[in-house]
User: Which sequence fits this backbone?
């Protein structure tokens, strides 16, 4: 009797895409399954950490160096896209940028910073007028309150200057770890790594620094990126996430590091 051999089923490349493929047509699935498929799909697009199968090979030191050498060659002096005039206006812009786009913040701050580029001038302007300038930005009432409160604190406790330590920056109203990292890096040239939605996605997708939280990704990136690239690494990764490794449709075909990237779903 002839022996029947079964072709083994292909192994899933990651847990998230597998869950999506089970419900190819969410509209036709049960509401519960459709909801779970939508959730998985949006998690995958956001670059959620891959399932820890232990099969993703970590990047070698040489590969990390190669990736950042390519970023540097393509854009030797990357710049952040938040407009500012000095460390104070940078701090305010970052506080305003929470859950808002840089373009939206810039639109509002151009006029605001023209009249108030120091904590003293911001206080003289007053909360109500600050609110008017930034009312196109989400959560503007709360943010206006924070801008005034942080300006007061800068004057009362730091001589009107933006402090240079993480703990002091994080003690300011509206400022958290990401704000401190951006200000320390851009205003004071420190080798910090601010993890926003783009850096979080790129860190996870590429396998450079997988992590379930922004802090895990931040510490992972700081561990693997050589010091010589750290000053600009934050901007290279943000710009990569914003313009190439897009959340829903990454442009793998034009990606500078597509041969190094570990994402099983990359399209090249
Ligand atoms: S190959 Fe694709 S998924 Fe990987 S980093 Fe590049 S754009 Fe992102």
Assistant:
């Amino acid at each position: 009797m002839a022996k029947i051999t079964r072709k083994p089923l292909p192994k899933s490349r990651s847990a998230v895409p597998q869950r999506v493929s089970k419900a190819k047509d969410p509209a036709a699935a049960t509401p519960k399954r459709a909801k779970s498929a939508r959730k998985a799909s949006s998690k995958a697009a956001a670059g959620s950490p891959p399932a820890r199968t232990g099969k993703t090979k970590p990047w070698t030191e040489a590969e990390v160096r190669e990736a950042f050498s390519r970023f540097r060659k393509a854009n030797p002096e990357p710049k952040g896209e938040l407009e500012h005039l000095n460390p104070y206006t940078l701090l305010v812009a970052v506080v305003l940028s929470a859950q808002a786009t840089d373009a939206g913040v810039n639109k509002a701050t151009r006029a605001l910073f023209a009249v108030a580029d120091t904590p003293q001038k911001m206080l003289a302007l007053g909360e109500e007028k600050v609110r008017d300038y930034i009312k196109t930005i989400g959560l503007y009432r709360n943010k206006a309150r924070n801008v005034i409160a942080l300006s007061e604190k800068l004057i009362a406790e730091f001589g009107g200057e933006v402090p240079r330590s993480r703990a002091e920056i994080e003690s300011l109203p509206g400022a958290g770890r990401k704000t401190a990292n951006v200000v320390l890096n851009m205003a004071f040239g420190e080798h910090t790594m601010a993890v926003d939605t783009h850096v979080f996605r790129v860190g996870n997708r590429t396998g450079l620094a997988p992590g379930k939280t922004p802090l895990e990704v931040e510490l992972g990136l700081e561990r693997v990126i050589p010091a010589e690239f750290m000053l600009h690494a934050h901007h290279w990764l943000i710009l990569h996430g914003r313009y190439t490794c897009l959340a829903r449709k990454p442009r793998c075909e034009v990606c500078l590091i597509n041969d190094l990237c570990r994402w099983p779903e990359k399209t090249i």
